[in-house]
Amino acid sequence: MEIKIETGGLRLDKALSDLTELSRSLANEQIKSGQVLVNGQVKKAKYTVQEGDVVTYQVPEPEVLEYVAEDIPLDIIYQDEDVAVVNKPQGMVVHPSAGHTSGTLVNALMYHIKDLSGINGVLRPGIVHRIDKDTSGLLMIAKNDDAHLALAQELKDKKSLRKYWAIVHGNLPNDRGVIEAPIGRSEKDRKKQAVTAKGKPAVTRFQVLERFGDYTLLELQLETGRTHQIRVHMAYIGHPVAGDEVYGPRKTLKGHGQFLHAKTLGFTHPKTGETMEFTADIPDIFKETLEKLRNN
C-alpha cells in the first residue's frame, strides 16, 4: 500500500501508525525489516517525514477469526424467546476482533443463549449495539432476525432509552444541559474519535447527580449512539470521564478504566409492543470510589 504525507514533522513510525491500520509496534517491525520505503528508500523509524513523502508499506494478512462458546459467567437480567438483556462487566470486549478472539461477550452468549440473530454475521451474533470494553452495563441482545431488525430500527429512530452514570473531572457550572456536537474519526489520530465538522450528528443530555469539588457524578442520556460518544463529548466540554486513558488526563481516579456505566436501558418489545425498562447497579469499584469521594 502507498500513502502520501500531507503534513510533515512526525517520526516515520508514528506517522505510519496514525495514517494506516498498522499499530505502532507493527509499523516498527516493518520499518526494521525494510518493508517500509520512503520515496523508494529504506528509512529508520526516527526519520522525520516531510510533506509530499510517498510511503510504501505492507498490508498484514488478515487474522482469521473464529468464535466458540465459552463458559464465562454472564449476568442475564432478562430473557424471553425474542430478546435478552445482559449486564456486561467492565473489561469485557463485546465481540471478537483482532487481538480479542476469546473471552468476549459473544463467546459467553454462545454458551448461555442458544438462539441468536445472525444479521451481524458469525462474529457478532445477537449484537444490536455495543459499549466499550471498559464501560460496564446493559446491552440488548436479539435472539432472532425479526427482533434484531425491530430493535435496530428503534435505535435508529432515537426511541430507545439509554442512560449512563459517569464520574467526570471538574465541577460542571450547570445542573443539566445538552451537548450537541458532531463526532467522527479524529484527523490528528485515526484511532480516536473527535468532535469534528465532518462528523455525524451526536446529542448527549446530562444531569448532575452529586458534586465532589474536583469531580462530579452525572447521569447522561444518549439520543444518538456514536463511537465513544459520552467520552468524546465530556472531554470536548472540558470534563472528561474519570479513568479514561484515551480522552482524559493522566492524573485521574484509579480504577479499571473509565468510570462509565450503562445503568438504564429501555425499548419496545419487538413482538408484544410492551415498553421494557431495565436497570443495573453500578460495579463495586464505582461504588467504592463514590464513597471515597464523599468521605473526602
UniProtKB/TrEMBL annotation:
EC number(s) per UniProt?
5.4.99.-
Keywords attached to this Swiss-Prot or TrEMBL record, sorted alphabetically, are: Isomerase, RNA-binding
GO MF terms listed in the record are: isomerase activity
Q: Name one Pfam family in it.
A: PseudoU_synth_2
* UniProt key word RNA-binding: yes
Chain ranges of the RNA-binding S4 domain: 10-73
* Catalytic activity as recorded in UniProt: a uridine in RNA = a pseudouridine in RNA
Instruction: Look up the domain of life of the source.
Output: Bacteria
Q: Can the keyword Transcription be found in this entry's annotation?
A: no
Q: What does this protein do?
A: Responsible for synthesis of pseudouridine from uracil.
Q: In its UniProt entry, what is this protein called?
A: Pseudouridine synthase
